[in-house]
Amino acid sequence: IEEQLPDLHSHFCDLNLEAHMYASQWFLTLFTAKFPLCMVFHIIDLLLCEGLNIIFHVALALLKTSKEDLLQADFEGALKFFRVQLPKRYRAEENARRLMEQACNIKVPTKKLKKYEKEYQTMRESQLQQEDPMDRYKRENRRLQEASMRLEQENDDLAHELVTSKIALRNDLDQAEDKADVLNKELLLTKQRLVETEEEKRKQEEETAQLKEVFRKQLEKAEYEIKKTTAIIAEYKQICSQLSTRLEKQQAASKEELEVVKGKMMACKHCSDIFSKEGALKLAATSREDQGIETDDEKDSLKKQLREMELELAQTKLQLVEAKCKIQELEHQRGALMNEIQAAKNSWFSKTLNSIKTATGTQPLQPAPVTQPPKEST
């Protein structure tokens, strides 16, 4: 300060304002105690780039920018200015940037700082030599007592921490043993559940095999009934077609015979005279009815047989539909049962294995391969 700002140095000497009264906080906290962060970031950047000497540059820049205000202040005013007004001035980032530029322009030679350091050390040694040995010993004794008390306090703290750590470790060990016992019990229960699950799985597989056999038999029976019904329907259709053909032939023959009789009657003069009169139609109808009695009886019998065959055909179709419905219902029950069995296998078996893995903390057990039942054609 005496070199860079001699008038401010003389003013501080007149006020008995020493540097440690305002600059010690700057140096101990790297200006973070009072100044805004935007300024502190710049200072830390310069410190990492330039070294510790930048602290002196920033301190001198602060004093140089505040020189006019400090020259007009008294002792109390100067301390208040350093404590309150100076940090407020650099809340604006532009002011902080200009301060950093000014700090970088200030030259503080390293040799001069080392010279000042040596002078300070020499002055401290001369003060110590001029000091009364008794006072020096008392001060040294007081320092050693403080160090001893500090070491004893640290020893007590370490002993307390050691005892606390032992107690905590013992409690943790007891808790770990209790947890291990609980886990062992859970492991035994899990193993027992696993055995029960495997037994239940085996029973379910046996039941599945039995159900498959039952379904297979029912399916074969239904297929046989379908084939039988299909054969019967084919026979009925063949019989119906034969009856229809026979009926058509008989109708054609009757019609031909009727035409022949009519031609013969028309060839006879007496018969044609009878037909020309009013009763001709009645006689013709009577004769035609007499001639077609046998044909009508045969038609009635054929129609009766046809109706019976149609009734049997309808019953057969109904039985066929019922058989198909029964087959579909059996297939649906089979699919639902297979889904339930597969879901039970996947969920219960996987949950049991995961609980064993969680309880033991070991590698999971490899599940036995499940044999897939052979696919059956429906």
TrEMBL record:
Keyword Coiled coil: yes
SUPFAM superfamilies attached to this UniProt entry: Ypt/Rab-GAP domain of gyp1p
InterPro entries, per the entry: Rab-GAP-TBC_dom, Rab-GAP_TBC_sf
Coiled-coil stretches noted in the UniProt entry, renumbered to this chain: 134-253, 292-347
Residue ranges constituting the Rab-GAP TBC domain according to the UniProt record: 1-51
Matches recorded under Pfam families: RabGap-TBC_2
Protein name stated in the entry: RAB GTPase activating protein 1 like
Lineage: Eukaryota, Metazoa, Chordata, Craniata, Vertebrata
UniProt gene name: RABGAP1L
